[in-house]
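A protein record in our archive is deliberately plain, so that people and models can read it alike. The record that follows is passed on verbatim for readers who wish to inspect the format.
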Amino acid sequence: MAAPVPANALLDVAAMAESDRRAVALGVPGVELMRAAGEAVTREIERRWPARRVTVLCGPGNNGGDGFVVAGALAGRGWPVRVALLGEMASLRGDAAHFAARWQGAVQDMVPAAVEDAELVVDAVFGAGLNRPLPPNVCAVLERVARLGLPVVAVDVPSGVAGDTGESFGAIPAQCTVTFTRKKPGHLLLPGRALCGEVVLADIGTPAAALEDLAVLAFENDPSSWRGELPSPRVDAHKFSRGHALLYGGERLTGAARLAARAAARAGAGITTIVTPAAAWPVYAAALVSVLVKPLSSADDLRAALAEPRLTALLIGPGAGVGASTRRATLDMLATGKPVVLDADALTSFEGEVDALAAAVRGPCVLTPHEGEFARLFPATGDKLTRARAAARRLRAVVALKGADTVVAAPDGRAVVNANAPPTLATAGSGDVLGGFVLGLLAQGMDAFAAAAAAVWLHGACAAEFGPGLIAEDLPELLPAVLRRLGV
């Protein structure tokens, strides 16, 4: 039986084109797909604004055809509509030519004067397949739109946003972007996400069979992907059956590991332990109540602590300090073959030595770098999705490349792009909490990719729950309510 494509799948430009081709082969005329797309855009416009002067900017391809549908539909409802076309009417082909021929109004050139008296602009110039700078005349028009402060509704993507990567080649922000059938990575990856405004996903009648067995490896991070794997205590549970999480606590910046430990416990770990150099033991012991604290006098003490058979997941990095001792401790943790989370200083301690880190990975492993830490290990080339996937393959580990558009990638190429993180998460210590969430889920036996994806989404949901004024300490305390809503 053919596999359906889930609603949160992200189709790249090639897969989207293939689904359109299949839809036509299955008996849905291309003109009907285009009509449905244009009508979907029209509905969103009418839902947001009363009738007003609108300029529809049409390109030479199918996106322009969608624009002609919008222009005709709005004009038929009494809206004053002006159409500006890139190129000549005679150059239009196929379905776009069909709807252009039905347009009864004037068509003018793509020049800034076309938007001078507009109160709304429909951007139907280029779709998601563009991967080169916009033509100068299009840039001039869009720049004028931006200077006038006109609201923009984009068809598929704002012109100049690359659908596969979110890269901008001269796009201006839209208030709303209407896309079709499934979202694309560029709707979620920055800067595309910021340029799209509200993204509306419209059903244009693509048959389900046209989406079956498409090569889809990227998804919008959504509980539907991992809710069924979230750990839930059995009726006969005890603290050890719920997992024993161990963290390495640094000697100087103690707050980071304390935040991570609290987060791991709130995520459900039955026991959470911090091991730390003996000099820092009093600080941790005085600050923590439900978290165990064990002093370390030597590397042998750490190895002895790691030999505890009931440990189920480990974390090192937050506040650990950069240097040889953290590097050794990281290698000792990886050598156990238990699930390990690597963050912050544990990653920076391998700057320039990524091959040594890759060789040390023995079991499930999740890395949670921000862009700066990532750049210390890997070259900063390519889009975020490509870079995260390449790193995951090289390390044979799950990589959660953090940011407003966090990408979680697995070694087999699967990836999710997260879109629920509010800007209030840009606060000290929030990354340490995320590492703790991952640790707590791993400790309970959750798969590494699912645990990382779930932790990232839960992290964003907790921040959204709190709102303005968020600090990192708030996040673990908000997790129980978010988990309850998910039915855990």
About this structure: The chain has a mean pLDDT of 96. The CA atoms of residues 194 and 286 lie 44 Å apart.
